[in-house]
Every structure is written in C-alpha cells, then in structure tokens.
TrEMBL record:
The lineage of its organism: Bacteria, Pseudomonadati, Bacteroidota, Flavobacteriia, Flavobacteriales. Residues 106-137 form a coiled coil. Keywords: Coiled coil. PROSITE patterns: HTH_CROC1. It comes from Flavobacterium chungangensis. Residues 14-67 form the HTH cro/C1-type domain. This is Helix-turn-helix domain-containing protein. Signal peptide: none annotated. CDD domains: HTH_XRE. InterPro entries: Cro/C1-type_HTH (IPR001387), Lambda_DNA-bd_dom_sf (IPR010982). The keyword Coiled coil applies. The keyword Amino-acid biosynthesis does not apply.
Length: 141
C-alpha cells in the first residue's frame, strides 16, 4: 500500500511539512543531531514514538498536533482562504486587503515635519548659546 493512501502515515506527514518549509533532509537531520539516512528512514516509517515526534516538531517549528493532523487538503484550504478573498478585489494585488488606515498619512507627515523643525530650532539655539558662551570666555581672558 502506498504511503500516500495511508491517512495516518506520520513519516509522510513529516516529509510534506519539511518540504513545505523548504527544508532538506540534511537540515532536519542536523537539527535533530542525526544524519540524513536516519531522517529518510523516519519519513518512511508509518509510526514514530512520541519523544521523537516532539523533537521533530520542535525542529520543524510546528506543534506535535500539527504533524498528527496534517493533511494535503488542509494546506490547500488554508491557502485558498487568502486567494478567494483577494482575487475578488480589483486585480488580486490586495493581499491583506482588510487593512484600514485610521489616520491621514499626510497629517502624520506634516506632524513629523513640524517636529523636525522644532528640533532643528532647538539645536540652532543651543549652538548660538554655545557660541555666545565661548565668546564670553574669550573676552574674559
């Protein structure tokens, strides 16, 4: 029986998650402190002991439950939630189109320009005060 037809083939699920994360077997092996051959054997195993599964989940940056519940259909459905909403807008370039700006960006720009102007004036005054103080010191000598 092919591993693709077995819904609870943990090794195959680990392999698919690793591939989706664009991780090679060698990289996973290094994270687990083992070699590529051991990862290959693990990915061909239908079951894996819980302790090893915890280590693999940590190395992949996912939860043990994510590995156990992984399905190709779930991944497809997950990505479809992005595209179904986004392509209904204009030309599909509105990824994350639910963002709403709660302020006027031009107002914020003007505020920052005014703040910079005030800082510059304070710096200029400090320099004038310093020059005045230095001139005073020179006259006293």
């Amino acid at each position: 029986m092919s591993t693709l037809t077995r819904p609870n083939h943990i090794g195959r699920k680990i392999s698919r998650i690793r591939e989706l994360k664009d991780m090679k077997q060698e990289a996973l092996a290094q994270a687990l402190g083992t070699n590529q051959q051991a990862v290959s054997i693990m990915e061909n195993s239908e079951t894996i002991d819980e302790e090893k599964l915890i280590q693999v989940a940590k190395a992949l940056g996912v939860s043990v439950e994510a590995i156990k519940n992984f399905s190709e259909e779930g991944v497809i459905n997950y990505f479809n939630t992005f595209t179904e909403n986004d392509f209904s807008h204009s030309q599909g370039t509105n990824f994350g189109s639910n963002n709403v700006c709660t302020f006027n960006p031009l107002d914020k720009l003007i505020e920052s320009v005014e703040e910079n102007k005030k800082l510059y004036e304070r710096l200029l005054q400090a320099e004038k005060d310093k020059i005045e103080y230095l001139e005073k010191l020179l006259k006293e000598k």
